[in-house]
Amino acid sequence: MEGGKPNLALVYQAVQALYNDPDPAGKERASNQLLLQLRQDVESCYFAAQTMKMKIQMSFYELPPETHNALRDSLLTHIQNLKDLSPIIVTQLALAIADLALQMASWKGCVHTLLEKYNSDVSSMPFLIEILTVLPEEVHSRSLRIGANRRTEIIEDLAYYSGTVVTLLTSCVEKTGHDEKMLIKVFRCLGSWFNLGVLDSNFMAGNQLLMVLFQVLQRDETSTNLHEAASDCVCSALYATENVDTNMALALQLFQGVLTLETAYHMATAREDLDKVLNYCRIFTELCETFLETMVRSPGQGMGDLRTLELLLICAGNPQYEVVEISFNFWYRLGEHLYKINDPALHSVFRPYIQRLLHCLARHCQLDPDHEGIPEDTDDFGEFRVRVSDLVKDVIFLVGSMECFSQLYSTLKDGNPPWEVTEAVLFIMASISKSVDPENNPTLSEVLQQVVLLPEGVHMAVRYTSIELVGEMSEVVDRNPRFLDPVLSYLMKGLREKPLASAAAKAIHNICSVCRDHMAQHFQGLLDIARALDSFALSTEAAVGLLKGTALVLARLPLEKISECLSDLCAVQVMALKKLLAEQSTNGKSADPTVWLDRLAVIFRHTNPIVENGQTHPCQKVIQEIWPVLSETLNAHQADNRIVERCCRCLRFAVRCVGKGSASLLQPLVTQMVSVYQVFPHSCFLYLGSILVDEYGMEEGCRQGLLDMLQALCMPTFQLLEQPNGLRNHPDTVDDLFRLATRFVQRSPVTLLSSSIVVHIIQCAIAATSWTTGTQLQRHERVHQTVPIAATFTQLQLQSLVDQRSEVTTKLRRQTRIHVDDEDGATLNVELKESSENPARRVHPASSGGGAGPGRWEGSAQGGRRRTGAGRSRWTLVTGGRAWSTLFKAILFETLSFFLPVP
């Protein structure tokens, strides 16, 4: 391979060795071969450098310690040899070196080593700075297998050498002058160290680099790339200085420096240089974020100077909406702080600034004069308007919602603004209308009256937003029923027009939700709309919303009318399902029934009439009539998880709707659930089972049947979870299984504990809390699994405290024998033994032996269980940290020790 490009066979051989050679030395030789021999091929070098980085990130622990120094020296040589080939290769190698330094505990003072090796070589300065840039960035990388103690050690080490690094960067700037590439590297590196939070603020306050930063930002001729690097660095410095009281010297320098950038902002605006304008706005926003508490604590004094707010309002006046959007998070936080303080005098200080902000936001929300059709809500500008609406709702209390609403209305009433101004004002009014007290408010009534009288000839966007405003003013309609007929007439006009149909449907839904009693007289009209739902150009969400509103009104009808009206409301959906089933039986093609199932579900969910004890539920008959269609649909699509979930959801709300009135469906429903689950173990059946237990678990005649259901569902579930990685691959099943178990403990604990299945459930719970590693336990994706498991154990204890302690304890004693060992908060041994003997409970430290590593499950792949004797199962749970161990032990010890007191 010397002297030219290698042939394909050699490259392939090297790549194979890199990935598959079990010998770490072989992997290193392959890496070196690619790095050294493919020097003239940028793509291959990049591949090799990136692969080396990934290997160090993911597999460094595989290398023997005696090879670490050689690997470090090799990497440093490679980056020096390849420094002129490509910046992206240098970056990958720099990351590899940084990750090596962080994981290689024997490499003490890595920064000192790097500075000593390359500080005197000017040509090495670019890649040295690159390494020093990525090193702090990688400290908190989740890809690296380093613990909290090692990270703390690294941060302390970097803090020790931080002054030396800043001195190096200052020296680079002095030597290279205004070399743009070097300045960009220096600013990126400095920002990285600011982000890590290890720079001494007093040292930095007097450092020349701060002056250079602001000089670069003040110069009109600064390039875009350099301007962005300098802006990022200033933002990082401001973020690192958020605790102003402990970083006073640096905070003052940054505060004064940023205030000098106003002129530069205006110059960038005049030149229409949007990139620089956005950078300045980022800096101004970060300044306000940093000094927010100071500003609220002492407004107008010292570093609470409200000129910072003026800078943000100047940005809000920029014609580009992207500029003001940068500052939204600050305005949210300011509103939150002021709301918590609730000081009228303080509110009055900030009120003028919020008023100006709202004025700017209303202007930014204006559509283009040549815009046609309705406002888009899915493009960037539509998303911006949604964020504006949220922000206005959060800060309107500072201005006064009624005052603001009246001012906005006066701009429409007293003038003749263009349509785009009218639409924007209506949009802001819709955002705050719910904050205005609707009681005896003539302005609201006048606005509502004028809006429903808008002629059809106005711009479509104005009509669209006015419909949204009417929907938001549903409480005004509820307190002024005289407006109900004209409002419904206005909304029906919109419902018949394709562009306005979904907005009108949403508004009708809002009216139905708030004005349920008044809308009862209009139920027939709602029923007619529901029957012709598909003739309107509605989104799926809008159609479901209309049915929800109709169901809410239906629940307010007299009980004797509800059954017939519910049957009429469901008829369209039921007929559609029957048609699909008939077509499937004829031509064998399966059509998607989810639309109709979702519509039935929303009807059942929101039809909740008040039924007195002893009265027959008016919905009971209808649900019994619909059940055969739902059952047939479930059978026809039993292999399709998505459709089965929709069927179960529909049945769940049907059961919740009538409660114990669905008793006649219990046996056929459970039979079908168990039958399908044996073949297709969809987790939604477990969820539906928990609903049945919740409704019928306290009924004496239903308990045994529900227990049989639980046992029948558990067997396929355990088989599924005992597969390799079964717990990992089926988190929803874990969730729903323990939700079902928890409901049984809540409703009928004696029934559950009298059965043999409880032992297997507890065994599964222990396995489910132990399979994951310590790192994975920290991730949100695993948290939802622990909640139902914890609830199951906790409910075992709480339920027995009520009235069944003696009986529950006796039953559990007959079923289990428990032995718990604890080793310094790290290891938990649990032994469950089926026995007729009275168990003894003992808790003591285990011996210090064993070879389990943190977060590792000892046992076979079949559920993490290993046999230790006849009729006995034993677990060793090695957790990833004390917090997790403590959590699990708190649940297990408190619960099981309560049930199994020492004899």
Automatic annotation (TrEMBL):
GO terms for biological process: protein import into nucleus. It comes from the Eukaryota. It holds the Pfam family TPR_TNPO3_IPO13_2nd. Residues 87-233 form the Exportin-1/Importin-beta-like domain. Importin, which transports target proteins into the nucleus. Specifically mediates the nuclear import of splicing factor serine/arginine (SR) proteins, such as RBM4, SFRS1 and SFRS2, by recognizing phosphorylated SR domains. Also mediates the nuclear import of serine/arginine (SR) protein CPSF6, independently of CPSF6 phosphorylation. The nuclear import process is regulated by the small GTPase Ran that partitions between cytoplasm and nucleus in the predominantly GDP- and GTP-bound form, respectively. It is found in: Cytoplasm; Nucleus envelope. Signal peptide: none annotated. Its main location: cytoplasm. This is Transportin-3. GO terms for cellular component: cytoplasm; nuclear envelope. Interacts with (GTP-bound) Ran. Interacts with (phosphorylated) SFRS1 and SFRS2; leading to their nuclear import. Interacts with NUP62. Interacts with RBM4. Interacts with CPSF6, promoting its nuclear import. InterPro entries: ARM-like, ARM-type_fold, Exportin-1/Importin-b-like, Importin_beta-like_NTR, TPR_TNPO3_IPO13_2nd, TPR_TNPO3_IPO13_3rd, TPR_TNPO3_IPO13_4th. Residues 833-873 are annotated as: Disordered. Gene3D superfamilies: Leucine-rich Repeat Variant. PANTHER family: TRANSPORTIN 3 AND IMPORTIN 13 (PTHR12363), TRANSPORTIN-3 (PTHR12363:SF42). Transmembrane segments: none annotated. Keywords: Acetylation, Cytoplasm, Nucleus, Phosphoprotein, Protein transport, Transport.
